[in-house]
Amino acid sequence: MHAPLPSLQIRGLAKAYAGHVAVDGLDLEVPAGQIYALLGPNGAGKTTTLRMVAGLARPDAGAISLFGVDVLAEPIAAKQMLAWLPDEPLLYDKLTPAEYLAFIAGLWRLPADVAARRAEHLLSRLGLMDRRDVRCEGFSRGMKQKVALAGALIHEPRLLILDEPLTGLDAAAARLVKDMLLERVADGGTVILTTHILEVAERMAQRIGIIRAGRLVVEGSMAELAAGREAGTTLEELFLELAA
User: Fold this and answer.
1) Confidence class for position 231, pLDDT limits 50, 70, 90
2) Among 52, 174, 191, 239, which is least packed, fewest CB within 10 Å?
3) Is-contact 208 235, C-beta < 8 A?
4) pLDDT digit string (tens) for 92-121?
């Protein structure tokens, strides 16, 4: 039997802006069917890396593949397998959640009945049914974040990339989003997320990568990262030691 292809494989990835090196020869591999937390201090290169994975920025050097598909050589095929949710939700404020999801589903060319069924499920699951026909322009940041998440999930991507997905969410909404991500992985999907809430990464992620100055410092499960250290070592303690 062949080993399953990794959801993401990065080799020698590099990117610089105006002389500043954001990503510096990064090597990274994310197994399929897991939640992977990519951590690092501000400016470490996390968002730049994920933007290149999502096809929103072109690397200066290196290779990226999603489930064996070369992101640079086959960008359309690669993008069809993923969804990207940035830290600042990007919506068309004059649209309602129902209209927004119909629009996104149309971009993915989903059949109308499939799109309607999935939109209904996502709006209900995220507690947005009573706002489905209200324009997004008056929504709180947390509500916009939930609408954007629904949009990211409408085509059921194999890989979901989230940059600070819990920002702006209250405790109940954050718990709901975490449950949905765990369900997504249980159904065979892969989730890559960045977060400054280290407890979230420690509790949810099967594997954790810490980058600093555009390079991978350490990678592994929480047990592997804590091996050889004092019992009860937390991810916060590891992060402060390795990412400083």
Assistant:
1) confident
2) 174
3) yes
4) 999 999 999 999 999 999 999 999 999 999
d(CA 200, CA 109): 34
In this predicted model, what pLDDT tens digit does every residue of 37-62 receive, in sequence order?
Answer: 999 999 999 999 999 999 999 999 99
Alpha helices in 108-219 (DSSP H): 112-125, 141-153, 171-186, 198-204
Q: Is the pTM of this model over 0.85?
A: yes
Token pair for 43: 């400016």
In DSSP terms, 64 is beta-bridged to 10
CA separation for the pair 29, 67 (Å, rounded): 11
Q: Quote the DSSP letter at residue 167.
A: T
CB atoms within 10 A of CB 237: 14
**Token output for 140:** 């709180």
3-state secondary structure of 66: strand
Hey, what are 137's tokens? 């322009």
| Bridging pattern class, strands 69-70 and 61-66 | antiparallel
Find out whether 171 and 142 touch, Cβ atoms under 8 Å: no
Maximum C-alpha span of the chain = 55
Indicate the DSSP class of residue 193.
E
| CA 216 and chain centroid, separation | 18
CA dihedral (165, 170, 171, 177) in degrees, to 10, reads -40
What does the alpha-carbon distance between residue 57 and residue 63 come to, in Å, rounded to a whole number?
Answer: 13
- With CA atoms as reference, report the closest residue to 126 among 84, 193, 172: 172
